[in-house]
């Protein structure tokens, strides 16, 4: 199943603590509530947010906040540097590059990168 821009059910989304509109995108402050279903079974005793969930959230917020409706085509330069764990507060930066039909994203824990990548959309 490829990530889509469809609205995800509220119970599958993090708590939004803030949103800042930037010239080329947005920055969200998020809390990863421990009861999110994504943590169940991934992994018992040391839960972390799955990478596919991070991409789904990128697509969700790109559709809802940046009004991007293009279908998902793929991900490049995907890097996972730090695990996103239950209860963590993080920021998500989305940067739209219209000339390339791509969306850059970066999750940060404080000032430290947690994950990043480049989502290609179908023009």
TrEMBL record:
Residue stretches making up the ApeI dehydratase-like domain: 24-117
Pfam families (UniProt xref): ApeI-like (PF22818)
Superkingdom of source: Bacteria
UniProt xrefs under InterPro entries: ApeI-like, Dehydrase_ECs4332_prd, HotDog_dom_sf
Listed name of the protein: Hydroxymyristoyl-ACP dehydratase
Organism: Aeromonas media
């Amino acid at each position: 199943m490829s990530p889509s821009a469809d609205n995800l059910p509220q119970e599958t989304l993090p708590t939004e603590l803030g949103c800042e509109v930037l010239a080329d995108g947005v920055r969200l402050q998020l809390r990863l509530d421990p009861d999110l279903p994504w943590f169940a079974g991934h992994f018992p005793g040391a839960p972390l947010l799955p990478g596919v969930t991070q991409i789904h959230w990128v697509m969700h917020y790109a559709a809802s906040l940046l009004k991007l409706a293009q279908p998902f085509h793929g991900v490049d330069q995907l890097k996972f540097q730090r695990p996103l764990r239950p209860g963590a507060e993080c920021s998500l930066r989305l940067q739209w590059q219209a000339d390339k039909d791509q969306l850059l994203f970066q999750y940060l824990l404080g000032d430290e990168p947690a994950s990043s990548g480049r989502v290609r959309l179908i023009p």
